[in-house]
Known about the structure:
This protein is α/β, with parallel strands linked by helices. The protein has helices spanning 10-22, 33-39, 59-69, 84-92, 105-120, 154-165, 173-181, 188-203; strands spanning 2-6, 26-30, 47-50, 75-79, 97-100, 128-131, 134-137, 142-145, 148-150, 212-215, 219-222.
Amino acid sequence: MKLVLLEDDYALSNEIITFFKQKEFECFPFYDGSILLKKYQKAFYDFIILDINVPGTNGLEVCKSIRAIDKKTPILMLTAFGEIEDKISAFDYGADDYLVKPFHFEELFARVNSLLRRKDVPQNEIELFKLDTLEINLSEKRVYRNKIEIQLTPKEYNLLVILAKANGRIVGKLDIAAKLWDYHIETNQNTIEVYINFLRKKIDKEHPVKLIHTKIGYGYFLNDEE
């Protein structure tokens, strides 16, 4: 496994690299975001860990730039910024997970392994989901309503797909948390409500038929019947 680490604290970077080398990872440390982007090679790395506050291009912009060319390689943000707004921003830029410093190395390793396992699961799914005027092209990761494309962040898209794959069944917050964040965000249930509201504004607000519904105390579901 080839691991990229963007971390400008040399001591911490060396500790992380030493730890992952013991786990038989091949590690590529960077201390400047701009240098990482210049040397990044799509499909060459298996996992990416990014600090946010680094010299050159910050970790969020690095994440966004990588996601523009590489949709699949897992990215974990490893940072001292622990507010819920920071976490939502990271997910909106394309991060798959978020761990706040200080952290336990074994927890970091567990999260890396979890995302790598998810990456390797075969995606045997239908290519197109339709409900009323909503269309989700699963192979291209594009969403349309009334034939007009809707721009969603990666987390918004993944949440919508979770609801779509439930085929009208209610999906509870814990199930959503497990699939989107592996239960790792302490405030993830409030975060889910935030993302549901984001989706409603983009998917339902301008349309008479509302598709995203809440069953209070149970969870969320998609349905084209009021």
